[in-house]
Structure formats: structure tokens, C-alpha cells
């Protein structure tokens, strides 16, 4: 099982704050994104943003980072301020 969280405008676009996946672990962040797009085709555009950031267990993670059982994975857009 892993917990997937969506933050900021991404949460609004997907109309989903978090979900639990019992059928995914051992793959990379990029593979998780592909898994989510496959199971939620209407999320594909939002999850394909080139500057989409990710974190595993509250630490920034690259797209090649491996997700382990019981991890929490978060996705969020790059935030800018001014």
C-alpha cells in the first residue's frame, strides 16, 4: 500500500486530495505517474506537466526514485512567488 497526495492547484484540477493504492510499490515515481494516467485518463494532462514536483515521505524525489511499500508520495506544481 502507498498513499498518494495531491497539493495546490493540482488537487483542484484532479478534484482529489489523496488516494490509497494497494496495487503499486517497487516502481519509480515516473512509473507511478504512468499508472495513475492509465487508471485515470482524465488526469493525464494535469499529471503530464513538465514542472510537476514530487516528494516521497516529505523529501523531494526525482522521477527515477523508487517507491517502497507504505511510502507517501506527493505531487505538486512548482510554486512561484512575487
Offer a concise description of the structure.
With about 80 residues, the chain is of the alpha+beta class.
Characterize the structure shown.
With 82 residues, this protein is α+β, with helices and mostly antiparallel strands. The protein has one domain: Ubiquitin-like (UB roll). The chain has a five-stranded mixed sheet. Strand 3 and strand 4 form a beta hairpin. The longest helix is centred in the middle third of the chain and has 11 residues. The model has no long low-confidence stretch (mean pLDDT 94).
Alpha-beta content class: alpha+beta
CATH superfamily: Beta-grasp domain
Shape: globular
Number of helices: 3
Mean pLDDT: 94
Radius of gyration, taken over Cα atoms and rounded to an integer in Å: 12 Å
Structural key phrases:
single chain; 82 residues; alpha+beta; Ubiquitin-like (UB roll); 5-stranded mixed sheet; 5 strands
Q: What's the structural blueprint in terms of helices and strands?
A:
Blueprint: E1 2-6, H1 8-14, E2 18-21, H2 29-39, H3 44-47, E3 53-56, E4 59-61, E5 72-76
Parallel strand pairs: 1-5
Antiparallel strand pairs: 1-2, 3-4, 3-5
Amino acid at each position: 500500500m502507498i498513499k498518494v497526495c495531491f497539493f495546490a492547484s493540482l488537487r483542484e484540477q484532479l478534484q482529489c486530495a489523496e488516494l490509497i493504492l494497494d496495487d503499486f510499490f517497487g516502481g519509480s515515481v515516473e512509473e507511478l505517474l504512468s499508472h495513475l494516467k492509465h487508471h485515470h485518463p482524465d488526469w493525464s494532462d494535469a499529471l503530464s506537466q513538465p514542472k510537476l514536483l514530487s516528494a516521497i515521505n516529505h523529501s523531494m524525489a526525482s522521477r527515477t526514485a523508487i517507491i517502497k511499500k507504505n511510502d507517501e508520495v506527493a505531487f505538486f506544481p512548482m510554486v512561484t512567488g512575487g
